[in-house]
Amino acid sequence: MKKTAIKILKFLIFFTLGIFIFWLIYKDQDIDRIKSVLKNEVNYFWVAVSLFIGLISHVSRTLRWGLMIEPIGHKPRFANTFIAVMVGYLMNMAFPRMGEVSRCGVLSRYEKISFTKLFGTVVAERLIDVLSLLLLLLVVILSQFGQMLSFIQHNPEIKQKLTSVFTSPYLIIGVVAIVVVIYLFRNTFKQTSVFKKVVAILINFKEGFISIRSIKRKGWFWFHSAFIWFCYYLMLYAVFFAFDFTRDLNPIAGLTTFVFASFGMVAPVQGGIGAWHFMAIEALSLYGVSYENGVIFAFVAHSTSTVMIILVGLVSMMILPFINRREDVVDNPAEIQNKSVLNKI
Predict the structure, then answer these.
(1) Which residue, among 154, 158, 156, has the nearest Cα to 146 in the 3D structure?
(2) CB of 76 within 8 A of CB of 64?
(3) Greater confidence, 324 or 171?
């Protein structure tokens, strides 16, 4: 009962936080202008292209997960694996980080695979995703460092704020105090639940990385690992062509926006709501896109992909029992006995 109450409380806190950020972004916007742009100035063909690319990325993730499951002695059906992936995305919309557990539960039930082993493959998958995002961030920093400096120089108020933050005596004293406290009470800190969770996460990442070595078709695994993120990037960049104010921006601008927005998705709020919008808007501002136009872009890009995940996820949940009905019947002991008798005859 206590754990359930804590989960509900976390859900409400993160959901409220996301809605609050979303409200801060859109509260002062001209709603009539937004409606006019959405009705008359958006090329929805490119939005449809974006969603199609998104579906391809989900198919690629499904195929990669199948490759990761093979070493544990199973080869699940593509349909069940794809549905499990989409149900996982859907669950993340309600409870952040619940999707990983949900998709393992779905596949474990319908493919009769150990939940623990499946979760190990997901840990390994998440490790690759984290490393991929960090690699893309490095590419953006190295390629757009001059652009970021130019943006800061042309916006003295931002430069002033950054300087005041990093030179603040309160920040310096606070950091030093935290380091001293951790050092003095390091033995006590090692016994805390926070430290144990961090250690557990690091151990899981280590085991996940080791498990990747067991994959038989490594070439295809690494292909899908790169292709998934390439599709994610193209999914967002395609939306650039839907608006006049982003159509002429180069692919690097799209990559920068994608990486910034991806870190918004990492935030523990449902579907990255609010956080994703904020990061995307800030990234677009580096390339001269006004705040008013940035909020429209973020709304279209995020809401359409979210609706797609919700619809595909709900359809997946509905058809899951039907496509597995035959297997459920065969699993019935009476049916198995009847089949055995027929085979003897």
Answers:
(1) 154
(2) no
(3) 324
